Amino acid sequence: MSTRFGSRVLHAVKPGPDHEVLRITQLGSGAGDVTMLDVECGPAILVRPDVLDDRYLLSIPLAGTGWTEVDGEQVGTRDVLLGPAQTKVSISRNGGNRALVLHFTREAIDAAAADRLGHEPGGPTRFSPAVRSDNARTAAWLELARTLAETARRGLLDDSPLGRHHLEQLLIHGLFEAQPHTFHDALERHEAASMPAVVRRAVSFCEENASEPITVSDMAKAAGTSVRALQRGFRTQLGTSPLGHLRQVRLARVHEDLRAIGQGDQPGTVTEVALRWGFPHLGRFSQLYRETYGEPPSHTLRSA
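Now predict its structure.
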């Protein structure tokens, strides 16, 4: 308990039979930035952790009931996030309780904050302790946390350290999108100030990977920003969405290929070119092409 939860204060509120125990099972080796634990409480317990200077704890209940109090106020959600800057925490769990607990290192959270801010945060990120699963974005993040834990339970993360790192970074950076936190306004200002460069990186990524099945998330990651910030930047700077820009890049590649075919420089048909550049719906493709180049794709091929 002291090692994993920073707590030396544990009370059995209502001791049960001898076979009712507190069991903490680590899922996987715990070698990365996120340690995942399966915690089962036989008897009802009360935990008062010390100050969590070096860790963040996310509790996702699986069975049973209980409550958590932070700095004198009861948290109004079942899923709870605790961390540095929360000076007084009490955790009460009824008998038969079971929870998934994720332990994030302070170092990893600080590094993610620095990446997003563009400078060292100068102090711990304080997240809202109430994790609201009724919010779509937060619910998706919680589902990712459960998936990561289940993958660790099966031992798959230990087989792929690189894969583990990518999943952990996705979860850690997603936390800044899923939960309210103290650096929200600073991040908004930083994203606004750096957006032209961010958009340029995303545009370059589209140019270099237009033939690949890339997503908005891939573009945001390559640009070093969030999906929401990237979408805002594209609207402001280019008057379109990231996927709208990617579509225009691919249409330009189609145009180039059709002219090359028409000039005899390469073989192919309109259908083959459309499918190669990610336009499986030929009717919609023809409409987009005509709107962009003022003529049907077959005319470009013939006129070249």
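The chain has a mean pLDDT of 85.
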